[in-house]
Design a protein that fits this description.
By secondary structure, the chain is α/β, with parallel strands linked by helices. It has helices at 47-53, 71-74, 77-80, 114-123, 196-206, 226-239, 252-261; strands at residues 4-11, 27-32, 35-39, 63-65, 87-90, 99-100, 108-109, 127-129, 134-136, 140-142, 159-160, 177-181, 184-189, 212-218, 243-247, 274-278.
Length: 284
């Protein structure tokens, strides 16, 4: 007998469906075998509303995973950590100060909001440091820090650890989650600040080069130079991935390029979208 992983997009930049709202951010609700996990939390402005509209029981979350500590992924922690049983999985650097500065503009703080930090302290929920690949309940794995092996990928923007923007932020807290299905691996990305190719290479390394069936989420190619985008597409092509769902920070230009390069394989990943993947009959 097989069981099914159901993935619901609860927060994303775009929304499709009556009463659903979009915001710059990302959150996925994962359900399988009576287990429930929230991967990222968006900014926190639309999480509860969309969850109600989509019949997603946030208070029944068994675990919450943060892909990294930026505000558009961690802002809703105070909402979901009201669950009395939700364990929090995050890299310790996710809670450290984070800043960004575009050329010609002032620095701005983009790290975890103070309300989310207070929620972590007040919840009493166990916090599990993902400094290495970590199993979350059954079937689901979070990568922990991702090795940077390519020569064409970077964090995707001018990110810093201090308000003076003198110390670059390597975003070591960036991580992805993955699970095995009967058709291959499914990888969920937050922002892929480690590089989407680095991320997929690492997941394959952790799984003895298992084939990848689907990749969903943010690829942070929004500011990618043409060379980086071309090389990213070339690397993804070698992996022969049947399903790609670029979202959030992938960017319009990169998303269009991916849809053009992989006709019939790309799909949308907006708020309200639901995906189902069957586990192997003998899967763990």
């Amino acid at each position: 007998m097989t069981s099914t992983m159901r993935v619901t997009v609860v927060v994303e930049n775009t929304a499709q469906g009556a009463q659903l709202l979009g915001e710059h951010g990302l959150a996925y609700w994962l359900e399988w075998d009576e287990q429930r996990v929230l991967f990222d939390t968006g900014q926190g402005r639309v999480l509860a509303h969309n969850a109600q509209e989509l019949s997603v029981p946030l208070r029944q979350a068994d675990a919450v995973i943060l892909s990294h500590g930026h505000f558009d992924h961690s802002g809703g922690l105070g909402i979901v950590l009201r669950s009395p049983r939700a364990a929090l999985y995050l890299h310790p650097a996710a809670a450290e100060p984070k800043f960004a500065r575009q050329q010609g503009s002032s620095p701005r703080e983009i790290g975890m909001p103070s309300i989310s930090r207070l929620a972590i302290a007040a919840s009493g929920a166990p916090a599990i440091a993902t400094t290495a690949p970590t199993k979350v309940l059954e079937r689901l794995t979070v990568t922990g820090p991702i090795p940077r092996s390519t020569d064409f990928e970077d964090t995707g923007g001018p990110f810093f650890q201090d308000a003076d923007c003198s110390r670059a932020d390597p975003l070591v807290d960036d991580q992805a989650v993955f699970f095995e299905t009967r058709d291959g691996l499914v990888v969920l990305l937050g922002c892929a600040h480690s590089g989407v190719v680095n991320t997929l290479r690492y997941v394959r390394n952790l799984t003895h080069n298992a084939p990848i069936h689907a990749v969903l989420g943010g690829m942070h190619l929004i500011e990618a130079a043409p060379e980086r985008l071309a090389r990213t597409i070339a690397e993804i092509r070698t992996l022969d991935i049947p399903l790609l769902a670029p979202a959030h920070c992938t960017g319009k230009t990169a998303t269009a390029a991916l849809w053009s390069a992989f006709p019939g394989r790309c799909t949308t990943c907006h708020v309200g979208r639901r995906f189902e993947f069957e586990f192997p009959e003998s899967g763990n």
